[in-house]
Amino acid sequence: MLPLTLQMDDLFKREKYGHLSRSLAAGGEPRFSYEIGNIAYWSPGPDIAIFYDHDGQSIPDPGIVVLGEIGSGADALKKYDGTVDVTIEAVD
Question: Which helix (H) or strand (E) holds 4?
């Protein structure tokens, strides 16, 4: 599905999330914690989340599957209180 541009909203002042048009075959170990910069799949949505801050809370069931990460600069998403368009693309 990449490159993918999603309209993303803020959640808990820690992540931006956007709704996918279809579910993914996640295939990965669900995690109940995250790191700043994680790009993760939340299957109930189905949503993609990008974590830009850490609030110490865990992720509820069924957890997330980390698909990738932003090496630096994820905290730049903090400045967008509302909706923002985000493009995700693979990097070699």
Answer: strand 4-11
